[in-house]
Write a structure and sequence with these properties.
Length: 345
């Protein structure tokens, strides 16, 4: 599928339906990046549906606590829990997963929303380019480490847990570099200081969201059809957001003008995230491995569907498992125990 500028404008100017609501009594919801923007607005919506547990996974203790207090003031929901996770540090992700293994219990909905958009190379403590680690590597690591809790929830409560990973329609704009699609070390290349030139960093956010789509499709292809776990990528649309707060100069001016003309509020964009997490209650399998936008299932980009894209998806999956398996050996165990090596899609 091609996504033109006109398609983008039409989508942004379309009337958006009200938020979908279901009864979440007895269920546990985790929202990553829940203290502001899309994450906070999605959390507010979930809070009105009476979940037993609602966990706000935030990087900052002070900002996270402020979000918990604001959530209570605006919705009356008093059971929200603040858990700390910093996706720029693998150790923080591992500690979050350890805590969930000890204290989390069931897990019905996991929304992975946290992301950054950077235009200059900056390395994390783990020596990866920051936006690649936050938007893709750590997001994937958290998904892997919480996978057993979601599958256990499905088995014990006869339900279909949802893993919702926030992607973007900007993945349509990426043209796959042939040198990358045929590179067995594509992630290591993307994360290196040498590759992160000023030119390449201009598209880093879009590329990271392309790899989000790759991850969702690759993971879904390896989840046995008998496992009632629904993995979905969602595009919330172009919204007012702190994501672009790093912009300056001409970029900042142009973004300000675009926001005034086309941007959704964060609340409106969050409705799409909630829809991905809650829609098709009677037929959840419809959302397996899908990319959803505008409250519907959409075809992914031509690059994703191309032979080069399929090759890049498979190679990046193998490399991702290898990288994260060295970060935390549990990843290899989880892949072997819960996922199939026979690709179904």
């Amino acid at each position: 599928m091609r996504f033109s500028l006109w398609s983008f404008i039409v989508d942004q100017r379309s009337r958006q339906p009200p938020v979908l609501k279901v009864d979440l009594t007895g269920k546990t919801v985790v929202v990553v990046g829940a203290n502001t923007g899309l994450g906070f607005e999605a959390t507010k919506h979930f809070a009105t549906m009476n979940p037993k547990r609602l966990i706000l996974a935030c990087r900052s203790q002070s900002k996270g606590q402020a979000a918990v207090d604001k959530l209570k003031a605006e919705t009356g929901y008093a059971k929200a829990e603040l858990w700390i996770v910093d996706l720029a540090e693998f150790e923080s992700v591992k500690q979050f997963a350890d805590k969930f293994e000890r204290d989390g219990g069931r897990l019905d909905i996991l929304v992975e929303n946290a992301a950054v958009a950077l235009f200059e190379y900056a390395a994390t403590k783990d020596n990866w380019e920051t936006s690649l680690q936050v938007n893709h590597l750590s997001t994937s690591l958290l998904a892997f480490l919480l996978l057993p809790a979601m599958i256990k929830t499905a088995q014990q409560h006869s339900t279909s847990p949802r893993l919702v990973v926030v992607s973007s329609d900007t993945h349509y704009w990426v043209k796959m570099d042939k040198n990358l699609s045929e590179n067995p070390d594509v992630l290591k290349t993307l994360g290196s200081a040498e590759y992160c030139t000023e030119k390449n960093m201009k598209e880093r956010y879009q590329v990271s969201k392309l790899f989000t789509v790759f991850f969702v499709r690759a993971l879904n292809a390896r989840i046995p059809s008998s496992t009632p776990l629904i993995v979905t990528a969602v595009n919330p649309g172009y919204c007012y957001s702190e994501l672009r707060r790093v912009l300056s100069g001409f970029r900042a001016v142009m973004d300000w003008l675009m926001e005034k003309a086309l941007a959704f509020t964060s609340e409106v964009g969050s409705r799409r995230i909630v829809w991905a997490a809650l829609s098709h209650q009677n037929q959840p399998d419809k959302l397996r491995g899908e990319y959803v936008s505008s409250f519907d299932i959409q075809e992914v980009s031509d690059v994703v569907l191309s032979p080069e894209g399929i090759k890049a998806q498979d190679r990046s999956w193998d490399e991702l498992v290898d990288i994260l398996g060295k970060v935390d050996p549990r990843v290899n165990t989880i892949v072997d125990q819960y996922l199939s090596r026979d690709i179904s899609v």
